[in-house]
Design brief:
Layout (H helix, E strand, L loop, with lengths): L1 H4 L2 H13 L3 H14 L17 H5 L16 E3 L4 E8 L4 E5 L2 E4 H4 L4 H6 L4 E6 L7 E3 L4 E9 L8 H6 L3 H4 L2 E8 L2 E8 L6 E4 L3 E3 L7 E4 L9 E2 L4 E6 L3 E6 L4 E3 L8 E2 L4 E5 L3
Antiparallel strand pairs: 1-18, 2-5, 2-17, 3-4, 5-15, 6-14, 7-8, 7-12, 7-13, 8-9, 9-15, 10-11, 10-14, 16-18
Length: 279
C-alpha cells in the first residue's frame, strides 16, 4: 500500500543523484554500509572497496576473470544474470505467469506490440530477480543480432516476491527496456525491468537509457542500412544501476528449461538454464 502512494520516480531520481556522486565521504559511506548490510562478496570483485568512483561504479562492478564460467552455448541457454528464478514456464493464451493469482500479457510487457507478442505465443519465458547483493550486469543467453528496442515508461514498484504476489501485472506496469534479438533459435526478447530506487539502465550499444519519460521510445537496428548489433552468448548486453529483474521470452519449441529449475532457485550468470532446440 505504501508503494502506491510514495512518489516513486522522485525517490528514484534522488537515489540516482546520491548513487552518481563522486564526493569521497558520501561515496565511501554509501559503498561500505551497503556492502556490509547486504553481505556483498567482494572476493569475487575485480577491484576492492575503496577503488570505485561512485556508488554506481561499485554497484555495477566487474568480476574477476573466470568467476562465471560459461556453459556450452552451442546447446544450452545461458543464464543472463546472477539472481533467483521468480517464475518460468510457457506463455499460454498470450499470458505470462507472475505469481499465484497474478499474470500479465506478453503484449503488455513488450509495450503493446501485438505482432511481436504473437511470435512468442506458446513459447517459453523465465523471470530472474536480481537481489541488491548480486552481480548486476546482464549478459546474452544465446548468440544474437539486436533487431529492435523499446523503452516503455511506467511505475517503479519494488519487484521482490511480496510485491510480485500483490501488485497486479507488476512486470508489465514498471518502467522497462525490451530488446529483441534474432538468434539461432528464432526471436528472443530480453526485458530489463526497473524498480523502486532503480536509477538507470545502461546498454552496451547505447549507453544510459534515459529514464522517466512519458511515451514509448522504439528504435530499429536492422532497417535503413543498419546491420544490427552482434553479440555472442555470454557477452554483456547491459546493466542495472541499482538492480531489478530480467524477463526472457523465446518462440515455441525452441527452449527446454532444466527440470532442476523452479521458483526461488538461485542461479548464476553463465550457467545452463536449459537446452536449445535450434530452428
Amino acid at each position: 500500500m505504501l508503494q502506491h502512494v510514495l512518489p516513486q520516480h522522485a525517490l528514484s531520481r534522488l537515489a540516482g543523484r546520491f548513487a552518481r556522486s563522486e564526493t569521497p565521504w558520501l561515496r565511501d559511506r554509501l559503498i561500505r554500509r551497503f556492502a556490509k548490510a547486504y553481505n556483498v562478496d567482494m572476493d569475487q570483485a575485480e577491484r576492492p572497496l575503496g577503488e570505485y568512483r561512485s556508488f554506481n561504479d561499485f554497484f555495477t562492478r566487474a568480476l574477476k576473470p573466470g568467476m562465471r564460467p560459461l556453459a556450452d552455448a552451442r546447446s544450452q541457454v545461458l543464464c543472463p544474470a546472477d539472481g533467483a528464478v521468480s517464475q518460468l514456464g510457457r506463455i499460454e493464451n498470450g499470458r505470462i505467469f507472475q505469481a499465484k493469482g497474478q499474470s500479465y500479457t506478453a503484449a503488455e510487457l513488450l509495450g503493446g506490440d501485438t505482432d511481436l507478442a504473437e511470435k512468442f505465443e506458446g513459447g517459453s519465458f523465465i523471470t530472474i530477480y536480481l537481489s541488491p547483493s548480486d552481480y548486476h550486469r546482464v549478459h546474452m543467453p544465446v548468440d544474437g543480432t539486436l533487431r529492435q528496442t523499446a523503452y516503455i515508461p511506467g511505475d517503479l514498484f519494488s519487484v521482490n516476491t511480496v510485491t510480485a504476489e500483490n501488485v497486479d501485472r507488476l512486470f508489465s506496469r514498471n518502467e522497462r527496456l525490451s530488446s529483441v534479438f534474432d538468434t539461432p533459435v528464432g526471436a528472443m526478447a530480453s526485458v530489463m525491468v526497473g524498480a523502486m530506487i532503480v536509477a538507470n539502465i545502461e546498454t552496451v550499444w547505447g549507453g544510459l537509457v534515459t529514464p522517466h519519460q512519458k511515451q514509448i521510445v522504439r528504435s530499429d537496428f536492422v532497417s535503413e542500412g543498419q546491420a544490427g548489433v552482434q553479440l555472442n552468448a555470454g557477452d554483456e548486453m547491459g546493466r542495472f544501476l541499482l538492480g531489478s529483474t530480467v524477463v526472457l521470452l523465446f518462440e515455441p519449441d525452441r527452449v527446454e528449461w532444466s527440470d532442476e529449475l523452479k521458483p526461488l532457485s538461485v542461479v548464476r550468470m553463465g550457467q545452463s538454464l536449459g537446452r536449445l532446440k535450434p530452428a
